[in-house]
Every structure is written in C-alpha cells, then in structure tokens.
Amino acid sequence: MKTALALRHVAFEDVGVWPETLGAHGYELAYRQAGVDAFSNDALAADLLIVLGGPIGVYETDAYPFLIEEIEAIGRRLDSKRPVLGVCLGAQLMAAALGAKVASGPGKEIGYAPVDLTAAGRGSPLARLEGLPVLHWHGDACTLPSGAEILASTALCPVQAFRFGAEALALQFHVETDPTRIETWLIGHAFELVKAGVDPRAIRADAGRTGAATAEAGRALLSDWLAALPR
Predict the structure, then answer these.
(1) CA dist., res. 5 & res. 28, Å (int)
(2) Which residues are catalytic?
C-alpha cells in the first residue's frame, strides 16, 4: 500500500470527497496537524503529499512560525520530484517554496464560481472542471513560479492553478469539499463571511445546487492526475 500524507491546518478543511479515490489508486491516507505534529521527515517519506487549506497567510511567519518549516519541507519535496498536491493555502505554500510571491489579492473570492482554463488546463486533469463552478475561499493570491505552467485563472486571481513538472499540482480553489458538510465551513469561517459581506445562505444554496457535480469532477480530476504520475 502506498502512503498519502495530508497536512491539515484546520479540522474541517480535510481531503473531503477524495479518500475513496485515493484508496482506488492504492493509497492509504494519514493526516498531520500543522503546527502540532512533526511533519518534515514524513513529508519527504510519503508516496504522495497533500497540503490542504487554512485561514492564515503564507507570509505570516512571525505569527505562525511553523509555516517556515512547512515551506522548507515542501521545497525539499518539490526538489525531489515526488508527487505534491496543494489546495488553497497549500497551493500558496507550494508557490512560496518555488520562490513566487504570495500576498493579499485585490479582493476576496468566496463562494461557488467557475475558473477560466488555459489551453494547458484544458489538456490537463482540470478539463473535468470545464463549465463547472468550484468553491473559492481565499483573499490571498500568488504569482506564477518560474518554471511552472498556469492552468486556470479568474479576474481577481490570475493564478488559480499551476503545475510544476508532472509531479506537482497546485489548486487555489476547492474541488475536494464534501457539499454535504458545507455547514462546517460556514461555521468555521463565520467571522470571515461577516467581514467579507458574504451571505452563508447563498453558499449553502449553491452547495445544494451544484456541489455534488463539482465534487464528482473533483474526484475525476484527482483520479486523472494520479493515473498520470510518473511510475
């Protein structure tokens, strides 16, 4: 059995609907809690590293010094050309590890909305998302790392997804979220929703209307990416 290690920053931002897909590809899933559990050695040893989201900024290393260790460990993992999948904060940590800039964006993107795929994106596992809304929940954005290929964008966030070689995929948005558990997100991010002027009822309604299709596309995206990893 191969190992998939997921680095989690908050409990409700987990791998969501992906465990079954991981299992189908022969991966046994384990979690490490950011800021609490030892991480660096496991991050290098695992067959697959998944770095999940969270409500902190990559640049807040004074307030959250464990981010320094995360960025360094992710950088070593990327240097080793072993598979890494980053989601939201995880994607930004990957960008930072590759020398790109991460900073506050021009505005928050919170809620379900589509992304614009590049030609490379349409030729990648992200093709599964064509025309589908994905869940956005961020205010920060990154520049495109040197040597990376952009796969998707939006007006507020030009780098919504990128790949770095065949082994590293970074998604600024969420396709792993279980729409039947969206309430955990609405509760966990209640203060941010108020500050951003976002009505949780709108996100709840969108999750009920389109969340299942997005989650299914997210499973297929992950499956396509895992199947294409170098052996």
Answers:
(1) 8
(2) 88, 174, 176
User: What is the rounded distance in angstroms from the CA atom of residue 122 to the CA atom of residue 131?
Assistant: 11
pLDDT of residue 2: 97
**Burial of 156 per CB tally in 10 Å (0-12, 13-18, 19+):** middle
H-helix or E-strand spanning residue 225: helix 200-228
Task: Tell which CATH classification among 3.30.420.10, 3.40.50.880, 3.40.190.150, 3.30.1330.30 matches the domain 2-228.
Answer: 3.40.50.880
Q: Give the pLDDT score at 143.
A: 98
Domain ranges in the chain are 2-228
pTM value > 0.90: yes
Residues present in the chain in total: 231
d(CA 121, CA 164): 13
SS3 (DSSP) at 222: helix
